[in-house]
Amino acid sequence: MRNSIKVRVQTEDFCIADEIDALEKDNNQDGATVTFCGRVRQKNLGEEVSSLFLEHYPGMTEKAINEIIVQAKAQWDINRITVIHRVGELTVGEQIVFVGVTSPHRIDAYAANEFIMDFLKVKAPFWKKELTEQGEKWLDAKESDENKAAEWDS
Amino acid sequence: MIKVVFFASLREQLSCSELSLPQESITNIEQLKQKLIADNPQWQSDLESGTLLYAINQTMVDEQHTVISGDEVAIFPPVTGG
After folding, report:
1. CA gap A11, A19 in Å, rounded
2. I need a labelling partner for B73 at 20 to 30 A (CA). Which of A152, B24, B34, B57 fits?
């Protein structure tokens, strides 16, 4: 398929190599593939994290991600886009999110990938609860994420 | 009827994930919140937190957005995915 958009919200892990294969298979129009993968890190705000719980708003989540992709496609020459976001309980080191974008050229692929991640952070209805030795707590949204997304408008 | 859903920390603070209420005089989200607070005074401080976000039928909107019968209104804290 020349263009394809894949959006998945799932509890299962994903394989980055398989996702890259799917982006590149029979795709000789695109010379650039840019991928991002986010994982659960061990320390957040100085506290040891043992695991995260990710909640989402089923239905709206997929819709919000698709809207972000539509905006990215309107701005850059990109063809295949894959966004995978996991939900449920995730332990340190596990993969949380994958964004992969293909384009004839790298500049569009880099920019669109970053744009999708920046807006996913502030527009897609996911919430992280952190489980640490001190107990559990919902993470606060970061102003830096809002500012990063706002930069695309300027 | 209007369906109202809550998520994440707000859902836990309210001990409520969803409810339904008749539209009556509710025309926007701000009025919907005032009705929720009138019915559940203990929710006042959580629902008046200035940082809450709103969606109607799964699209983000602001507090002044019109609400009609049959809408699903979601109220939630700022998102933290990625």
Report:
1. 16
2. A152
Task: Quote the pTM value.
Answer: 0.94
pLDDT at A148: 95
| Count of all residues that appear for chain B in the document | 82
Domain range annotation of chain B? 2-76
Structural domain B2-76, CATH architecture: Roll (3.10)
Half-sphere exposure of B4 (CA within 13 A, CB side): 23
DSSP-based three-state secondary structure for A100: strand
Tell me, what's the ipTM? 0.94
Considering only CB atoms, which chain A residues are within 8 Å of B8?
Answer: 55, 127, 129, 138
Assign domain A4-153 to a CATH class. Answer: alpha beta
Choose among A55, A64, A120: nearest Cβ to B82.
A120
Q: Give the residue extent of every domain in chain A.
A: 4-153
Q: Which residues of A touch B74 (CB under 8 A)?
A: 57, 60, 125
Tokens of B13: 């603070």
Model confidence at A44: pLDDT above 90: no
User: Contact A56/B81, CB-based, under 8 Å?
Assistant: yes
